[in-house]
Amino acid sequence: MIIDKAEVIVTSPDRNFVTLKLTTNDGHTGLGDATLNGRELSVVAYLQEHVVPLLIGSDASRIEDTWQFLYRSAYWRRGPVTMAAIAAVDMALWDIKAKAAGMPLYQLLGGASRSGLLAYGHASGKELSELFDSIRSHQDQAYRAIRVQTGVPGLKAIYGIASQAADAGGGEARYDHEPARRGAKPMQEDWDTRSYLRHLPGVFEAVRNEFGPELPLLHDGHHRMTPLQAAKLGKELEPYDLFWLEDCTPAESHEALKLVRQHTTTPLAIGEVFNTVWDFKDIVRDQLIDYVRGAVTHMGGITPLKKTMEYASLYQIKSGFHGPTDISPVGMAAQMHLGLAIHNFGIQEYMQHGAKTDEVFEQSFTWQNGLLHPGDEPGIGVELNADEAGKYPYEQAYLPYNRLADGTMHDW
Ligand code: GCO
Ligand code: MG
């Protein structure tokens, strides 16, 4: 099993995706997701210029050693570009190994610990009536857990709130459809934390009154609060029994989380922007979070995310892997296999890709009764249709950003 071909494929069906395809001399192929939203081509360059030349001629069966080699030999460790590139190699090697073994990947990771993965979808609305419709529409699509994001009076555009107008393609309003946001410059949105904090508890009260006590509800604070603001919000949301409050403060500061923890029992989820197990080490050890938000694509692959989850299991901390549409179907499927196998699975974020994406990436996962399953095809269970992929060249696309009313840049 010698790697004799490595291709980096960039395609933009509903949004940009970067995929690594490895082929071995005995005819096995493996796919890995290297998509870094808004900075895609930097990972393409890292892979093409620095990783592919090192892979050709190496043994595809040595997954752990290849990971350690790419991580340690570069000397310059960590960072989103490096780790997305290493992640793609790691996923592709696991795909190859499982295909060679004739097994779905979850079998190699220890076998299934459950029959399916509870998943949450993204409901949002500028106003309550829109939000309620969005929650109902998610329930109609079988979601049994819902993330709730709301507009805030006085703020025009907030990331995470779907708007029909922003969806150039028509159809159901979504906030992640890129075309409306594509261009040489990112879109500016506005923010005011005090207005948000005044408004949000009332929204959760209304949602609980309308949908009852059982429905698991989640909320993403998107790094926008100070520790004290997050502590206040967590406390005020306690009566509404959230499944989690995500990224309540900028994820880099462990001290901030300590302060939040001292004041609230609302469960906390952190880590979608983390790159290594080291980013999780102290907050897991100090039990400052309840859910690990890493994604295989941004954490350096299946190998390190599995280690992170094993470490987290010592502290009864569960998974809540990042699953927006900027994780490609390859990355999503890879983390479904991991989620099925580990003991401390919590929930999987699942936004659903667009129809064009599903034609480019042929997938074998299933979505039934609110549960995901990666399927039983050998490997990760995703193949890339090169003809379809070739129809959609890369398009420059940036994430939006926030400024306060006086023009100050703010976390978004
Ligand atoms: C989430 C996230 C995403 C990110 C996006 C950035 O919880 O799903 O916050 O919406 O913002 O993945 O690329
Ligand atoms: Mg998030």
Features:
412 residues; alpha/beta; Enolase-like, domain 1; TIM Barrel; ten-stranded mixed beta sheet; 13 helices; binds D-gluconic acid; binds magnesium ion
Question: What does the main sheet amount to?
Answer: 10 strands, mixed
Low-confidence stretches: 164-170
Helix content: 25-40%
List the total number of helices.
Answer: 13
What is the CATH architecture descriptor of the largest domain?
A: Alpha-Beta Barrel
Strand content: 15-25%
Mean of residue pLDDT?
A: 94
CATH topology of the largest domain: TIM Barrel
What is the radius of gyration computed over CA atoms, rounded to a whole number of angstroms?
21 Å
Termini separation? 45 Å
Structural category: alpha/beta
In the CATH scheme, the class of the largest domain would be: Alpha Beta
Report the strand count.
18
Give the distinct bound molecules. D-gluconic acid, magnesium ion
Number of domains: 2
Globular, elongated, flat, extended or rod-shaped: what is the shape? globular
Oligomeric state of the chains in view = single chain
CATH superfamily of the largest domain: Enolase-like C-terminal domain
